[in-house]
Amino acid sequence: MSNPDSFIDEVNEELKRDRLFAAMRKYGWIAVVAVILIVGGAAYNEYRKAQITAESQAFGDEILSALDTDDATGRAEALASIEAEGAREGILSLLLGAAELMADDREGAMAALAQVENNADLPPSYRQIAALKRVIVGGSLIPIDERRATLQGLSAPGGAFRPLALEQLVLLDVEAGEREAALEGARALLQEPDLTDGLRRRVVQMIVVLGGDPLSDFG
């Protein structure tokens, strides 16, 4: 009985191998494609990393070259000629705003900063600093109510630029001739945590100019 059993086992094994080879012939291409996709995907990722690095280096080189321009107007023109997208566009517009201001073009600076401020695709920190700088640069060119509304938004609790926005709100009250409101705002600003030494000194000076007693506010 052992010989027939052995023969049957061999036949079964042969049938299994035949079915396996048939399956490999039928579906083996799937495994090959999977391997190609994995290897190809890894190669593409490396290519994209190298491409992004090269693009970043080229963008940085263009920025440095533009900033090396001697005169302020030429520097602004060089920055304006650079093409950028995404976060790089935000950085470029902030630099352009500073360059336009140095070239005595306040409206050009405000326009560059407004591009960042109104671009919802940029990080909030970019938009907030652009809004703050636009209010400061624009000054009386921007209606006082518009400036106040922008600064009140930036002065929300927990905001990264809250202390600077509060300082500008105090200055707005001074500009509007509202001495008591300015003095109250300056005193409240002194109580803010994490004030820089420079900002604290400016607030104390404002309190003195407004006729207040900074020593009582510290006490």
How is this structure best described in words?
With 219 residues, this protein is mainly α. Among the domains are: 70-138; 143-214. It has helices at residues 2-67, 72-80, 87-102, 106-117, 124-138, 144-154, 162-175, 179-190, 197-209, 214-218. Helix 1 packs antiparallel against helix 2, helix 3 (87-102) runs parallel beside helix 5 and helix 8 (179-190) runs antiparallel to helix 9. The longest helix is centred in the first third of the chain and has 66 residues, at 2-67. It is elongated and about 90 Å long. 21% of the residues are buried.
Topology summary:
Blueprint: H1 2-67, H2 72-80, H3 87-102, H4 106-117, H5 124-138, H6 144-154, H7 162-175, H8 179-190, H9 197-209, H10 214-218
Helix pairs in contact: 1-2, 2-3, 3-4, 3-5, 4-5, 5-6, 6-7, 7-8, 8-9
Termini gap: 108 Å
Backbone CA Rg: 33 Å
SS elements, strand count? 0
H and E order: HHHHHHHHHH
> What's the rounded overall pLDDT mean?
83
The gross shape turns out to be elongated
Short description:
Residues 29-133 form the Ancillary SecYEG translocon subunit/Cell division coordinator CpoB TPR domain. By secondary structure, this protein is mainly α.
Name some characteristics of this structure.
single chain, 219 residues, mainly alpha, 10 helices, elongated
